[in-house]
Amino acid sequence: MTDENAPAGFPEARVQGAGFPEETETSGELPTLEARQLTVRRGGAVLVEGVSFRTHAPRVALVGDGGFVPRLLLGEAEISSGDLSLLGEPPSQALGHGVRLVPKDSWLLDDEPVLASLRFVAELFGIPHGSRVAKHTLASLGLSQFARTTPAALEPAERCAVSLALAAITGPGLIVLEQPLDGLDDLRAAWLRERIEATCAGDGAPRLVWTCERLLSAAQHDLASTGDVVWLQYGHLLGAGPAAELARGSALCLVRVAGDGERLSRALRARGVVLESTADPREPRRASSWRMQASNRRDLISAAVETETPVLDLQLIKPLSEPRS
Question: Domain spanning 3-20+29-246: which CATH class is it, in words?
Fold first, then answer.
């Protein structure tokens, strides 16, 4: 194999065969993830716009439109304005400074046996005894029987677990997982969640950022409940904070209406209902997004009829389940 065959998610210097670069020490003062008035585009499409949040949590779930982080790390999107940092590093430099990305299609090479792929990845990162490390990685997951098969023989959860295990061996400060639990049934999602939690637990363990489109399965709820949640929808921030705090709140509604929604907002304020904008108020729009407590949906409908404001979309965002003791 040659370095040009390296899968996505590797820093350029390593793909070019350079030595193992010096890692940036993970200071307790560095936020795991920080965005400041961040706008990200992919081609002509806006992925997120005017987003700001900061979290020091060792585990962070990006729910909804959180795919902009993997896209930036892979160079498939660009920052139009604002800033994003992962452990203090911009996305363009993060993979060379202590951040590992496990993309949705994993680190394994489609046309090579699993063991050969892992050996190549180990050598790419300068890990001594790459063949032995690759065998141990498979054995630790009970997957030794797949050593000589192609990755197609592994299930998505197994491919992710293998890539995660090897990523952890490289000694990162932060691991980013792209949709690790999306699309899995409950049994496989629970198995992979256990592998993720075991990898990112204890002293010296890497921090974790993971993405998902929605919190649908029990495994997603359980993993999200162990850290902070950053919730994005329609490219705007719906909410951010510790999962335990979000769990104590009532359900939220995400509302999308035609126009700027100002008349609707005033009508709701007259009813004692707070409608909070999730968009940049400085820019006129054909449609606008807002959030409110779900218990006020009747007032919303009444105010929309009164102000003749078309409601384009109304989503109920349920709170997280309480973390298990």
Answer: alpha beta
pTM for the predicted model, two decimal places: 0.74
Model confidence pLDDT, tens digit, residues 34-85: 999 999 999 889 999 999 999 999 999 999 899 999 999 999 999 999 999 9
Spatial neighbors of 60 by CB under 8 A, at least 6 apart, are 32, 33, 207, 208, 209, 210, 227, 228, 229, 230
CA distance 17 to 4: 10
The CATH number fitting domain 251-317, selected from 3.30.70.260, 1.20.210.10, 3.40.50.2300, 2.40.160.60: 3.30.70.260
> Are 221 and 320 within 8 A, CB to CB?
yes
DSSP 213: S
> CA nearest 47: which of 22, 72, 26?
72
